[in-house]
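Retro notes (design track)

What went well: tokenization of the new backbones is finally stable.
What didn't: we kept losing track of which sequence belonged to which structure.
Fix going forward: every design gets posted as structure first, then sequence, in one message. First example under the new rule, 335 residues:
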């Protein structure tokens, strides 16, 4: 096991190196950069000249967009990365690592709760749909989940805000706490602030869960149907076992084996934030910050953020492979 993990980690170095080259090349080839976007109005009004723009670009290290300039800039960035320095964000005027560390936890909290609820709801729905194939229950569950898949996040989020926030007034529509609210640095104040944050996060989590149910539910349904048609399930039924025991003891574990694949994508999604959801509900999570940085052409932050996600993806893929050997004894990790 240890030998396999070390081998995968060694290979991952080259994978991340290739990812960094692709991301950096794409970011540097964007038509506009941070300086162009920041000083566009001043340049149009004549208060700033193109010579000033070029000087600013040189100062930020993004002036040379030739092949040689991009290669030089990449190796400078890579050298800083090897020293543990992700650079300084142009837009947020802080070290990239600091911006990510300060803002990823709210996104992590939302994504973790939404993911747990997604699994708790989707897997039973998928199994129920499979065990009642072509019934009214099956069609009803399928229609419900397919509606969730089909609705864009910004559209469904707007509907939820309109109904639960504007019409009913049950939940706030944006932010993490009430504007102007102050909480004393006491135990009671901490609990009051936590309660306010939970109240604000109900709608974002609700939207995230509803829109993510369909894919996992359909995946579980398909896997369950495949397992229920296996020979060992027919043998278990022929021995007189109850249908409940056949499904939840014999079939359930093998149904979960393909779902382990999803673990590879869960880790980056937990820390990566939800750009559209955070934008709709005005939550300053890491997803929204990354979206704004991309619009602003903030190369250091975009690079640092994407490499952060790439590392999480590699770790998630490795964890997924290890979990395969745990849930399925037939799977042996290669040397």
């Amino acid at each position: 096991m240890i030998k396999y993990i070390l081998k995968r980690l060694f290979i991952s170095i080259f994978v991340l190196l290739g990812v960094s080259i692709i991301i950096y090349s794409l970011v540097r080839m964007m038509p506009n950069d941070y300086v162009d976007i920041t000083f566009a109005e001043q340049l149009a009004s004549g208060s700033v000249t193109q010579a000033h723009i070029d000087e600013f670009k040189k100062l930020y290290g993004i002036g040379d967009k030739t092949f040689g300039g991009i290669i030089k800039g990449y190796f400078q960035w890579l050298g800083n990365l090897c020293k543990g320095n992700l650079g300084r964000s142009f837009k947020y005027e802080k070290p990239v690592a600091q911006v990510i560390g300060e803002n990823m936890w709210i996104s992590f909290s939302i994504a973790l709760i939404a993911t747990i609820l997604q699994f708790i709801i989707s897997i039973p729905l998928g199994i129920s749909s499979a065990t009642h194939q072509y019934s009214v229950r099956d069609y009803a569950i399928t229609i419900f989940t397919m509606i969730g898949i089909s609705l864009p996040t910004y559209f469904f989020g707007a509907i939820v805000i309109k109904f639960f926030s504007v019409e009913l007034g049950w939940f706030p529509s944006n932010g993490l706490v009430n504007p102007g609210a102050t909480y004393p640095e006491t135990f009671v104040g901490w609990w009051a602030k936590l309660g306010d944050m939970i109240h604000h996060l109900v709608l974002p989590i609700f939207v995230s869960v509803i829109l993510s149910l369909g894919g996992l539910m359909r995946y579980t349904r398909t896997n369950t149907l495949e397992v229920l048609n296996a020979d060992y399930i027919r043998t278990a039924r022929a021995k007189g076992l109850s249908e409940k025991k056949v499904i939840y003891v014999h079939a359930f574990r093998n149904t979960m084996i393909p779902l382990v694949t999803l673990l590879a994508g869960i880790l980056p999604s937990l820390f990566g934030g939800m750009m559209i959801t955070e934008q709709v509900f005005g939550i300053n999570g890491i997803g929204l910050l990354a979206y704004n940085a991309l619009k602003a052409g903030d190369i250091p932050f975009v690079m640092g953020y994407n490499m952060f996600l790439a590392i999480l993806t590699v770790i998630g893929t490795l964890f997924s492979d290890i979990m395969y050997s745990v849930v399925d004894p037939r799977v042996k990790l290669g040397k």
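Added context from the reviewer: DSSP finds 15 helices and no strands in the chain.
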